[in-house]
Design brief:
The protein is an alpha/beta fold. It has 2 domains: 263 residues, Rossmann fold (3-Layer(aba) Sandwich), CATH 3.40.50.300; 64 residues, Ubiquitin-like (UB roll) (Roll). Helices cover 42% and strands 20% of the residues. The chain has a 6-stranded mixed β-sheet with strand order 2-4-1-5-6-7, with helices on both faces. Strands 3-9-8 form a 3-stranded mixed β-sheet, with helices on both faces. Strands 11-10-12 form a 3-stranded antiparallel β-sheet. A hairpin with a 3-residue loop joins strand 8 and strand 9. It binds guanosine-5'-triphosphate and magnesium ion. Guanosine-5'-triphosphate (GTP) binds next to helix 1 and helix 8.
Length: 351
C-alpha cells in the first residue's frame, strides 16, 4: 500500500514527510510506523525481544505539481496512477524565506488540483468511451465492454460537473473497473493544510469550515505545521510532552496524519503478542481470520486450525493475555471469523 505525497513546490511536502517518518526515512520512500497506543501498552506489558509496528509506505519521490502549463507532468501522472492514496499537502503558511509561486491561498490550490485530477479522468473516460463505441460487443448485455460502457456513460456527467469519483456512489463491481483504470479522482485522499507556526492549534475559520465540509464527504483533512512537527520529531521522547503542551497540542499532527492515512486505506490492526516478537499487523477491514493467518505467513494459513482471539478491551481490562485466558475471555474462532480492529490473535495451526 503506497501513499504518494503530492502538492505544489515549496508547500512543505518533504518537511512533513520527514516529520512523519521520524528517523525511518533514508531516502524519499519510508515505511512509517503507525502510532498506536494499544500496541505501546501491549509492548510495555509483554516486553518482547523484538517489536514490529504496523507501517504505511510514504513516497516523497513524486514530481511536484507544476505551477504553469500542464500541472501534471507525464512522470507525475504515471506515478500518481499507481498510488493507493494521496497525501495532499496544501500550503497555508507564509514564509518569505520559502517563496511560493503565487499568493498563498490554500482553498484555491486544493480546488485547482482536484479539478485537474477530474479533468485527467474525464479525458481518459472520453477516450475509452470512444473506443468502446467501436467494439462489436458493446451492445451485448453482460459483456465486459457493455458493463464498462454503461459505467463510463454514468460517471462521465459527474466528472463534467467537476465531481471527483470518490464522491460518486459506485458498486463494488464498478469500483473494480475504476481501480483497474487507475482513475485519479477515485483514489482516497488525505489533505494536510500546512499552516503557520502560530496557527498550529487553530487554523482559522475558513480552513476549519473546509475541513468539516470534507469530513462530511468522507475525506479526512487536517491543519498541521510541518516545521513544528519536524522539530518535535527531533526532540527526545521525554522532552516532547512539555513542548507539545506549550503549543497547546495533544500530540504531533503527523501522528494523527499517519493514522488518518492508515484508516483511509481501509486498514485495521490485529496484534500478535509473542515474547520473541510482538507485532502489529495491518489488515484490510472486513478480512477473515484465514486472511489474517496468511498475512503472518502462508504456511500458517495452510495449516489453520483455529484462531484464539482476545479483544483489546478484554486484554486491557485484565492486564495480560494469561489473565484474559484464565478469565475465559479467549474465544476460539474459525476461518470465517471477521477480525476486529485491536484483536489479539494466536493462530493454532498444523505447521
Ligand atoms: N514557516 C513555515 N515554513 C515551512 C513550513 N513547512 C515547510 N516550510 C518551509 O518551506 C520550505 C519548503 O519546504 P519543503 O518541505 O522542502 O517543501 P516541498 O513541498 O518538499 O518542496 P519541493 O520538494 O521543492 O516541491 C522549507 O524552507 C521549509 O522549511 C511551515 O509549516 N511553516
Ligand atoms: Mg520536497
Amino acid at each position: 500500500m503506497k501513499v504518494s505525497v503530492i502538492g505544489f513546490p515549496q508547500s512543505g511536502k518533504s518537511t512533513l514527510y520527514r516529520a512523519a517518518a521520524r528517523g525511518t526515512a533514508k531516502g524519499s520512500v519510508a515505511a512509517v510506523p503507525v502510532p498506536d497506543e494499544r500496541f505501546d501498552a501491549i509492548v510495555a506489558q509483554v516486553k518482547p525481544k523484538k517489536v514490529t509496528p504496523a507501517t504505511v509506505v510514504l513516497d516523497d519521490d513524486m514530481e511536484p505539481i507544476q505551477t504553469s502549463g500542464r500541472l501534471f507532468t507525464p512522470r507525475f501522472l504515471e506515478d500518481a496512477r499507481k498510488a493507493d492514496l494521496f497525501l495532499h499537502v496544501v500550503r497555508a503558511f507564509d514564509n518569505p524565506a520559502a517563496p511560493f509561486h503565487q499568493e498563498v491561498d490554500p482553498l484555491r490550490d486544493l480546488e485547482t488540483v482536484e479539478v485537474e485530477m477530474v479533468l485527467a479522468d474525464l479525458q481518459l473516460v472520453e477516450n475509452r468511451i470512444e473506443r468502446l463505441q467501436k467494439s462489436m460487443n458493446v451492445k451485448t448485455p453482460g459483456h465486459p465492454d457493455n458493463v464498462e460502457k454503461r459505467l463510463f456513460d454514468r460517471i462521465k456527467p459527474a466528472l463534467e460537473d467537476g465531481t471527483p469519483l470518490r464522491d460518486v456512489e459506485l458498486e463494488e463491481e464498478d469500483l473494480k473497473i475504476v481501480r483497474n483504470y487507475q482513475l485519479l479522482s477515485a483514489k482516497q485522499t488525505v489533505i494536510v493544510f500546512n499552516v503557520d507556526e502560530d496557527a498550529a492549534s487553530d487554523p482559522g475559520h475558513l480552513l476549519q469550515q473546509k475541513i468539516q465540509e470534507l469530513a462530511a464527504k468522507g475525506t479526512q483533512a487536517f491543519a498541521a505545521c510541518a516545521t513544528i512537527d519536524e522539530e518535535i520529531a527531533q526532540l527526545d521522547a521525554s522532552d516532547q510532552p512539555e513542548f507539545l503542551a506549550s503549543l497547546g497540542l495533544a500530540e504531533p499532527a503527523s501522528n494523527r496524519l499517519v493514522r488518518a492515512v492508515y484508516d483511509a486505506l481501509g486498514l485495521i490492526t490485529f496484534f500478535t503478542a509473542g515474547e520473541n516478537e510482538t507485532r502489529a499487523w495491518a489488515l484490510k477491514r472486513g478480512s477473515n481470520a484465514l486472511k489474517a493467518a496468511a498475512t503472518i505467513h502462508n504456511d500458517i494459513a495452510k495449516g489453520f486450525i483455529r484462531a484464539e482471539v482476545v479483544s483489546f478491551a478484554d486484554y486491557r481490562a485484565l492486564g495480560s493475555l494469561d489473565a484474559a485466558y484464565k478469565a475465559n475471555k479467549m474465544r476460539l474462532e474459525g476461518k470465517e471469523y471477521v477480525v476486529q480492529d485491536g484483536d489479539l490473535l494466536h493462530i493454532r495451526n498444523k505447521s
